[in-house]
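Entry type: protein chain
Record version: 2
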Amino acid sequence: MSVLVYAISTDDARAPASSELHEICAAGLRALAEPVAARPPADIEQLVRYEETVETIMQSHTILPMRFGSVLDSADQVRELLRTRASEFQSTLEHLAGAIEYGLRVSAPHEPSDSDDDRTYGGPGETYMRRRLAQQSRSQELRAWLDSELGGLVRDCNYRAMPDAETSLSAAFLVDRLLEHDFRDRVTEISKTTDHGLSWSGPWPPYSFAAGVHG
C-alpha cells in the first residue's frame, strides 16, 4: 500500500507526534505518514484536512512539512528516502528548530516615471525593459525597507516580486517562537505608520524554508 507523507521530524520515541498518523523511522528521522490506496484528490476538503494535520503537528514539533500529495510506494521506500537524505534533512531541521513561518505582502504607492510614457522611447520592447528594471528597483527598495524594519526579529527570509503588480513584494519570514509576539507587534506598528500597503498571515508550517525537501 502507498504512503502519504505529511512531515519529517527527528526520531524521538519519548515525544509521539500524532496519534492519528503512522511513524516510519530511519537514520534518526521520523516520517509522519498515512497509508493510502492511491494519491488523494487535490480537492478543497482534502487540502484543508492535510493542512490542519500538518499545523497540529507543528505546534509541538519541529518539522519539515511535505507538500500535499507526497506519496511514496511503501514504508520501505520512505525509510530509504530518510537514509539517503538524512544529512540534508537533519541540517534543515536544525535550521528550523523552534521557529515558524509568517507571510507578508507589501505594496508601495506607484510613482510615475518616464517609462510610464510609451511615447518617450523608441518601441514597445525598450518600454517593457525599462518597466521591468523599474519594477526590480522598487522591489529591491521594498526588500531593503523590510530588512531594516524587521532586523533582529527574523531568523531567515525569502522574497518574491509579485508579477501582477509592479510595486508589490511577497515575503516569507522564519521567526523564532520566542520572538513571535515581538514580530507581530512590530508588523502591526509599521503597518500603521507607513504609506506602504501591508498585510500578513501566519503562523504557518515553514514550507518556504524546507524547499530542498521537495527537490
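Comment: The two ends are 23 Å apart (CA to CA).
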